[in-house]
Design goal:
two-stranded antiparallel sheet; 214 residues; alpha+beta; 4-stranded mixed sheet
């Protein structure tokens, strides 16, 4: 683990992963998250939807969804009904789930990532336009208390066990084995924007400096 101290936070990075050439293969070789390998079904990790972390994220997701063209938004009617409850205080549980489009829906590739259907002028930052779990994957951050009122953040690759029971049934997990490790650039570069959003620019640049130095 690569460790970087930043005030009251100790960041611990799974260096091997951030040095690796992992890349998302959805639509170009992803075997899916089903019980059998099935590239043709297009069952990427977003196929089960996104678990929203809190009421604020549910409200933000609902507001952003309202800007999308219904013709490009499968399950638009159902989502609109759920959005009403998301806007109501104390009625949206932290486990609320945003439903993904099916692989056969018109424009489903764009619909799965809301920012791809918005005009460039509205692309302020990806972490404001996607559910937290969507823009962080396959990065996972484990937080735990440290000594003397500090905290420890372990930044690592998402693993099969992080899926819970569903992970036990998956035929393939993209962070396992060599199939998805075919990118031209290391993860510290390809997912640099996400890393900087998670850790802050200074910590990210220090991590990148250390990895690039060797």
């Amino acid at each position: 683990m690569e460790e970087i101290h930043d005030g009251e936070t100790l960041w611990r990075f799974e260096r091997d992963f951030f040095e690796s050439r992992w890349t998302c293969l959805w639509g170009r070789g992803c075997l899916g998250i089903g019980s059998e390998p099935a590239e043709h079904l297009g069952l990427g990790c977003c196929s089960v939807g996104a678990e929203l972390c809190d009421v604020d994220e549910a409200r933000m997701t609902a507001a952003l969804a309202a800007t999308l063209d219904p013709a490009r938004f499968e399950h638009h009617g159902e989502a609109s009904e759920r959005a009403s409850s998301a806007m109501a205080p104390a009625t949206t549980p932290a486990s609320s789930t945003a439903r993904a489009s099916s692989s056969t829906a018109p424009g489903s590739r764009e619909a799965r990532v809301a920012r791809s259907t918005l005009r460039p002028s509205r692309l302020a930052s990806h972490d404001r336009l996607e559910a937290l779990v969507c823009w962080q994957l396959p990065i996972r951050v484990d937080w735990e208390p440290g000594p003397d009122n500090t905290e420890v953040a372990t930044v690592r690759r998402w693993t099969r066990s992080d899926w819970g029971i569903e992970g036990e049934e998956m035929a393939w997990c993209c962070t396992e084995g060599p199939l998805a490790y075919v990118a031209e650039s290391p993860v510290v570069d390809s997912l640099g924007a996400a890393l900087a959003a998670i850790t802050g620019t200074e910590v990210y640049l220090e991590l990148r400096r250390r990895i690039k130095a060797e």
